[in-house]
Every structure is written in structure tokens, then in C-alpha cells.
Amino acid sequence: MQNTLVILKPDAIQRRLIGKIITRFEEKGLQIMGLKLMRMTEELARRNYVQHKGRDFYEPLVRFMTSSPVIVLALRGKEVIETVRKMAGFTFGTKAEPGTIRGDYAISNRFNLIHVSDSLETAEREISIFFKKDELLEYENVDTPWVYDLSQGTIV
Ligand code: CMP
Predict the structure, then answer these.
(1) Which mutation among 21, 50, 91 tests ligand 1's pocket best, with the greatest number of atoms within 8 A of CB?
(2) 115 flagged as catalytic
């Protein structure tokens, strides 16, 4: 099992796409460990995107991410990092495949609705930026045996 961070960006909230986007993750069978609506501070935005510091899109990205509330979401599941990256689709809306979140709802390079962690190390770092330990809940979902096929005792 892995954990990943998803941020519903200001455009997702302003365009009233919260329900549609979160529903996709729920319907996939992923578990929500943490969730909050918040206003991202400049400090948090800069920390989350530190790897892009110096790129031409960095400053406009920080302005965008702090312009209006966001939702941060910690998700748990089998191979969840790769799964959620695939569900998000390519970074640029015009290049994202139909059927992905960005492919279905985004057209901009910057206003691409969601941010998702791109590796195990990044996920750990990003989750710790936005969630305190006691904000991440461990619990069983009643449908786990049906999502994961536990008929032989292990996840298949
Ligand atoms: P995200 O996956 O959150 O990671 C970095 C973000 O920077 C990206 O989504 C876009 O919102 C933005 N971004 C990346 N490349 C560009 C670009 N060439 N022009 C504008 N914004 C970009």
C-alpha cells in the first residue's frame, strides 16, 4: 500500500469540479486518509513546488496556487502513485488523454485542475507539508475485500 497527495487547485474549486474529481478517486476504490479545504500560503506553495524554482512558470504558479482556496487530499491504495498519475493525465490540458481528469476537464498548461505526487519520496514529502500526523486517519473501508480480492488472504 502507498499514499499520495492530490491538490485540487483553485480552478477546480472555482469551476465547481470538486465532487466530480473526488468521485473518480472514490469510485476507483482508493481510500481517503486526509482531506481539507484550505487557502494555500505562499510559503506552502513555494515548498510544495521547490523542484520548479527558477523555471519560468514558477512565480505565476505560486500566484495561481495562492489565488483562491484549494483542497488537499491524501489517498491510499495499491500502487496509488502511478494509478493517480494516470488518472490525472498529462500535465497540459490539451495533451492529456480523454478519460483522464485533465483530459476531460482542462485545456490550459497551468490551470490543469489537480496536482499529484510523482514518486514515493515526493508523496511522503508533500503529504507532510499539508497534513499533521493526526490528520491522517487509518481505518478499514468495508468494501476492501471487494475492491482488492482478498479471497486468498492477500491482495491480488
Ligand atoms: P503540476 O503537475 O501541479 O506541477 C507543476 C505545475 O506547474 C503544473 O502542474 C502546472 O500547473 C504548471 N506548469 C508546468 N509547466 C508549465 C508551463 N510550461 N506553463 C505554465 N504552467 C506550467
Answers:
(1) 91
(2) yes
Distance 154 CA to ligand 1 centre (A): 38
pLDDT of residue 94: 98
DSSP 8-class letter at 59:
H
Pocket test for ligand 1, best of 5, 51, 63, 110 (most atoms within 8 A of CB): 110
Tens digits of per-residue pLDDT, 63-103? 999 999 999 999 999 999 999 999 999 999 999 999 999 99
H or E element at residue 5: strand 2-8
**154: pLDDT strictly greater than 90:** no
Neighbouring CB atoms inside 10 A of 30's CB total 23
Domains, the chain, ranges and CATH? 2-147 (3.30.70.141)
pTM of the model: 0.96
CA separation for the pair 94, 64 (Å, rounded): 19
C-alpha cell at 123: 508523496
Q: Is 32 helix (H, G, I), strand (E, B) or coil?
A: strand
Contacts of 3 (CB under 8 A, 6+ apart): 33, 74, 75, 76, 80, 123, 124, 127, 136
